[in-house]
Amino acid sequence: MGYNKINAIPLKYHTMPKFIIEGGYPLKGEIRVGGAKNMALKLFPAALLTDKEWVISNVPALEDIRHSVGLFQSVGGEVGNVSAGTYSLRAKDIRPENMDPNICLKIQTSILMCAPLLARYGKVFFSKPGGCAIGPRPHDIFWAGFKTLGAKIKKNKHGYLLTAKGLRGSKFVFPWISVGATEAMILAAVLAKGKTILKNAACEPEISALADFLNECGAKIRGVGSPTVEITGVNSLSGGKCKVIPDRIEAGSFIAMGLAAKSPIKITNMNPDHLDALWSSLSKCGVNLDIGRDFVQIKPDSWKKMKGVEIRTHEYPGFPTDLQPPFTVLMTQAKGLSLIHETIYERRLFFTDMLNNQMGAKIIICDPHRAIVQGPTKLFGAKVISPDIRAGLAMVIAGLIAKGKTEVENIYQIDRGYENLEERLRRMGAKITRAA
């Protein structure tokens, strides 16, 4: 297949852009949901399982995707740009010891590279992953899983050396539900000898979509989408084509944005079946939505009777932790009290300090995992910062509904998870610009 070769990805940033938002303008029209970040990122390490070509489409143009491209290239992977949002990946002449530690520090999913490299080459050196500063994400669960498959792990001051003389299937029970560890064990077990059984596995739609594609390429994976996954190892995988599923987190964030901005917008190119917990919570709030096969329309005035509600984040199919920040901003506009119980990450509620101290919200942080939101309250423009991807989007929503001008700094974090956000919002009538 002919394609344009992608050059090495530059990782130094010479400017620190920010968003400048003039609040109070209603949104109108439609906004299309992009490809799922949390699936697309996993296709780069998965492509290391075979030397055949994969073509992946509907890939969002995000900073984390750029880093994934760079990390894949650092070990010798070939990346071609077929067209906008479509890439060709091939892992033919791989150097597993060359994983770039500087890129590893920028994305949490870098740890997933260990699984296919260990499975195919029996050796990999890994420094440590980066990602959002929303709470500890211990690596022990990954190492414990790899060890059950026969890997040996040595730690030194620079990182971890993983070795294996051929991985062998085994049974592994996750001590707690972990999306990343579930994906890592699936990737490691696909080429392992014999059968692997995973219990207490994560059930996210992005994992199911990844497994479905691996099966199309010759893998033997059963039970994905349930707590018990069974993988029978195969000798090799074939090439294939994969379209990334719609991003359910982006879809849910845009719905919260439309409701907070009191705007009857339409969110398209999404899968409503992936957001049942959100629909349940919004129903309790008194919100009226038109939910179609691949769209959601916010009905006019559906926010007028919106009242406070309790949410508790949980692994899928529960309320997504990644939707908690935009939902918290939404609850500042609901009548009465809302209890936000963040069970996954202990630092994910810290962004509410900015909503309180700089923008006029009334939120009581009970402890690192619980906050009480009193609404409705008027928000006021201020200078704030984007501490992570999801809180960054929440601050943008706050700026859209606040009185006056809001400046959101450190929007590199937002660019990691939302493609061309300001352009998409301007097309809907938002007054938002990017400035150096």
Overall geometric form: elongated
> What is the SS-derived class?
alpha+beta
The oligomeric state is single chain
Most strands sheet: 5 strands, mixed
Distance between the termini: 39 Å
How are the strands of the biggest sheet laid out side by side? 1-5-6-4-14
What's the CATH class of the largest domain, please?
Answer: Alpha Beta
Q: Specify the CATH homologous superfamily of the largest domain.
A: Enolpyruvate transferase domain
Q: In words, what does this structure look like?
A:
With 436 residues, this protein is of the alpha+beta class. The chain folds into two domains: 8-34 and 247-435, Enolpyruvate transferase domain (UDP-n-acetylglucosamine1-carboxyvinyl-transferase, Chain, Alpha-beta prism); 36-243, Enolpyruvate transferase domain (UDP-n-acetylglucosamine1-carboxyvinyl-transferase, Chain, Alpha-beta prism). The chain has helices spanning 37-46, 63-74, 101-104, 114-121, 140-148, 179-189, 205-216, 248-260, 276-285, 324-331, 352-357, 389-401, 412-415, 421-426; strands at residues 4-5, 18-22, 30-32, 54-57, 78-83, 86-90, 123-126, 152-156, 159-163, 171-173, 195-199, 220-222, 228-232, 240-243, 266-268, 289-291, 295-298, 310-312, 336-341, 362-367, 370-375, 383-385, 405-409, 431-435. The strands form six sheets. The protein has a five-stranded mixed β-sheet with strand order 1-5-6-4-14, with helices on one face. Helix 10 (324-331) links the parallel strand 18 (310-312) and strand 19. The chain is elongated. The two termini are 39 Å apart. Residues 8-14 have low confidence and may be disordered.
